[in-house]
């Protein structure tokens, strides 16, 4: 029996996607083999990858001035690729620190020999809000941010418009959950496993005029231009991971009907859950500041760690899984990624009310 | 209908593996979700990864002085990680050049700022044999080789025993196809998509005393010690790709009965095909020198490119697919990876005889 999956990532995938993948496992598209056994240079796989790119372009409304590539190594490899390509040794770059992942990205830029600087941080506030006052370095080659903080449950409600350089954003845990105006962005990326597919592929979209400024004296597999030039096939790409992400893109376009619709459903899901938290007379307590609340990761606590644990355990036995907070902060977290249905959220909210009656 | 799959990579996978993956797609191991939707830090996934490592250790007969990790980025990222970790800026390292992939590894070491040198090359002979005379640099930090050349169809029949430093080998296209004496090796690795699983995971085994010598001033996702310290979970690993590779390891242990058995079957397959080539009175011509012939990738040509094309096309329509040579050399190639059954080879040999009757 399928459970209600609130995992923070890897997270829930659409049932239709899994059903199609299972159905085509032994013989994908009449090739007589699974997609994993097909050559990545076969006309069928090349056409599949082209279609994945086209669907993503349509969803994000990207023009030809944007390139789309598939990398590996998750967000953590992007943490290195970004300064290596765009700042270089001693090069300046600005970071907006909204929590664990932004901090890691900032530190990695230093490891890579660049000269990162914090343009803003909410560390003093325990990362419970997204900063909105920035001290930009005019020499920065880019301004880096994490648009949704999976750990603390915060999300950018708007983006800086006065940055001195292109914005580069890790959108992993909110990718394709809402339309985003990309006017001030140079590059956005997402590790697939939060909202679109299996861990093992990172979707990267970047403006070609930014890519043209990338340094060329870098290892081939870390070079953005090398991915662009070779349509992500300098070597064998993670075909299965791209394929599943592509099925999710199709689901978003055909079944959901695009990002406006997805955002509307995600808003209902988040409003339902935050409503239950805020209406619990303080029994459930949201940990992110209301103005910075994430629609993807809802973090909350009960009165005391024992109750947190009891809640998590009893929820699990009711088929509500993945509700533990990130191991760095504890507490509870319900991730409401695109594929998490409204029925799952309704079930959670019912359980919360019932749990409060018994333990409040 | 399943075809006979002679793809050079991604290549054939065992039918049992695909069947199990399809069966468990909606509900893996009673978790109520697919393995792609499980948290990588759940006890179920951690146990799965531990088991994959244990099965690999058993297959390769690795002691505790060896570490096993899972990377991403294919062999091409290893081309960079190896010099970055073990040679560093200006550091010496030796390469045995057996063809395209070894050449790329050598060039990448230079891009990474190290000082690679060719200890041997068969380039003058068009890479149709594996060199066996070496001019080692006593200052080399390691000696790099590609144990099986997928493009030219050559394979090391033995390995250097007098190298001044640990051997590091790309074994991608012959991984787990035969037992290998690892006495002189410091590190071996394989992109999964040739012989064990889907593209998107690279299996790396290395001696811990070599790992202890790795440089520490490198980006986290390029640092071998960081993978070892975190059991390959510094960030989210490619869970699906590891899972499928693990199912193949189990198939190798349980169904095949280990690497001795696998090697015996692979020898029969290769002998059958080379026998057909050598017995064709010159109609089919093997392109690798007999003493260097690969049991994994059998490269051959017919009298003329037109016949090559005709052969490939007619074979395809008989359900014998993936017989085109690597795009850099053309001709024909039958890859006989572990999961390619003897029935597929028999079918190919029959077709070859029949094709020769009609066109010889």
The secondary structure category of chain A is alpha/beta
Distance between the termini of chain A: 31 Å
CATH architecture of the largest domain in chain A: 3-Layer(aba) Sandwich
Number of strands of chain A: 14
Helix content of chain A: 25-40%
Salient structural properties:
seven-stranded mixed beta sheet; Aspartate Aminotransferase, domain 1; 36% helix; 2 domains; homodimer; 16% strand; 10 helices; Aspartate Aminotransferase, domain 2; alpha/beta; three-stranded antiparallel beta sheet; 360 residues
What does this 3D model show about the protein?
The structure is a homodimer of 360-residue chains. Chain A is an alpha/beta fold and 360 residues long. Chain A has 2 domains: 15-255, Aspartate Aminotransferase, domain 2 (3-Layer(aba) Sandwich); 259-359, Aspartate Aminotransferase, domain 1 (Alpha-Beta Complex), CATH 3.90.1150. Chain A is built from 10 helices and 14 strands. In chain A, strands 2-10-9-8-5-3-4 form a 7-stranded mixed sheet, with helices on both faces. In chain A, α3 crosses α4 (100-111) and α8 runs parallel beside α10 (342-359). Chain A is globular. Chains A and B meet through α1, α3 and α7 of A and α1, α3 and α7 of B.
């Amino acid at each position: 029996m399928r459970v209600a999956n609130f995992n923070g990532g890897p997270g829930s995938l659409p049932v239709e996607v899994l059903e199609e993948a299972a159905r085509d496992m032994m013989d994908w598209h009449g090739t007589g083999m699974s997609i994993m056994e097909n050559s990545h240079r076969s006309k069928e796989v090349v056409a599949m990858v082209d279609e994945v790119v086209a669907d993503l372009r349509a969803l994000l409304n990207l023009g030809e001035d944007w390139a789309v590539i598939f990398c590996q190594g998750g967000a953590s490899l992007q943490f290195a690729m970004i300064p290596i390509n765009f700042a270089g040794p001693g090069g300046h770059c600005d970071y907006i620190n909204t929590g664990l992942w932004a901090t890691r990205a900032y530190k990695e830029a230093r490891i890579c020999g660049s000269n990162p600087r914090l343009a803003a941080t909410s560390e003093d506030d325990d990362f419970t809000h997204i900063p909105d006052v920035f001290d930009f370095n005019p020499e920065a080659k880019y301004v880096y941010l994490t648009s949704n903080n999976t750990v603390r449950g915060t999300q950018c409600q708007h983006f800086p418009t006065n940055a001195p350089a292109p914005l580069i954003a890790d959108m992993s845990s909110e990718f394709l959950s809402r339309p985003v105006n990309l006017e001030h962005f140079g590059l956005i990326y997402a590790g697939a496993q939060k909202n679109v597919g299996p861990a093992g592929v990172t979707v990267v979209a970047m403006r070609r005029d930014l890519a043209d400024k990338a340094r060329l004296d870098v290892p081939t597999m870390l070079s953005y231009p090398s991915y662009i030039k070779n349509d992500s096939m300098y070597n064998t790409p993670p075909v299965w991971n791209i394929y599943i992400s592509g099925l999710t893109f199709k689901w978003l376009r055909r079944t959901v009907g695009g990002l406006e619709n997805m955002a509307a459903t995600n808003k209902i899901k988040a409003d339902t859950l935050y409503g239950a938290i805020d209406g619990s007379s303080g029994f459930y307590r949201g940990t992110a500041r209301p103005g910075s609340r994430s629609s993807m990761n809802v973090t909350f606590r009960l009165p005391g760690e024992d109750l947190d644990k009891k809640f998590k355990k009893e929820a699990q036995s009711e088929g509500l899984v993945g509700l533990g907070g990130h191991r760095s902060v504890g507490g509870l977290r319900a991730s409401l990624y695109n594929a998490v249905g409204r029925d799952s959220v309704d079930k959670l909210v019912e359980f919360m009310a019932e749990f409060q009656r018994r333990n409040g």
